[in-house]
Target: tRNA 2-thiocytidine biosynthesis protein TtcA
Amino acid sequence: MFFSNDPLFRRIKRSTGRAIGDFNLIEEGDRIAIGISGGKDSYTLLHALEALRRKAPIRYELIPVTIDAGFPGFRSDVIKGHLQEHNLDLQVEMTDCHGIIEQKLRPGTSFCAFCARLRRGALYSLADRLNCNKLALGHHLDDFIETLLLNQFYIGRLAAMSPKLLADNGRHTVIRPMVYVEESDISSFSQRYELPVVDCSCPMAGQGDLKRQRMKELVNELAAENPHLRGSILHAMGRVEPRHLLDRTLKQF
Model:
């Protein structure tokens, strides 16, 4: 990899490797499907995991996969071309998420949330066919923090993401190895090496999740005052003290 000696990439790779060790994300003989959306996060995850795999003391396989949701204009060929430049093969799964959404989306239901569920189901099905026992996703530190705040502010519960979680189907383990990697580092890496970011071509693209965007702005505002904010919140997620909370299922009052 031509960027393997870049200090920025080494920092990303080191943080990813630390998360793998801390949460036992990758084990001997794993066959891991990596969801490649064409965005900066999934590209960065793939390159970090591939660099780590080459020097790992254990044997495991990485299988990059892309779900084509059927939106006109989606350029899976651009993703495939980038991976071929790095001697990696891409599995593309063609779906009709677009048509299903148009037919079955109920009024008032989130377009993006429905699409995400359909894509995730397609990922699980593809992982089954490829005999993968794990699915790696490109969520980073900021995603964990924003999800925590969204759940507190809008749902009324203390929950974020888990770096390692058994899927609802009971067959696959979802891993998020970039839990320690800040989005700013991923953005810098993507821009520095001009990673070919591909738009999903969704008709709702650009509208985004306004609540998540507000959480992102809030974190950036607070981080300007406290540079250690992200690390502090991440540390808090791993240091839960039930006796100082109100959950009656965790504590007898």
Remarks:
- The mean pLDDT is 90.
- The domain at 7-206 is CATH 3.40.50.620 (Rossmann fold).
- The longest strand covers residues 61-68.
- The beta strands are 31-35, 61-68, 91-94, 134-136, 164-166, 173-175.
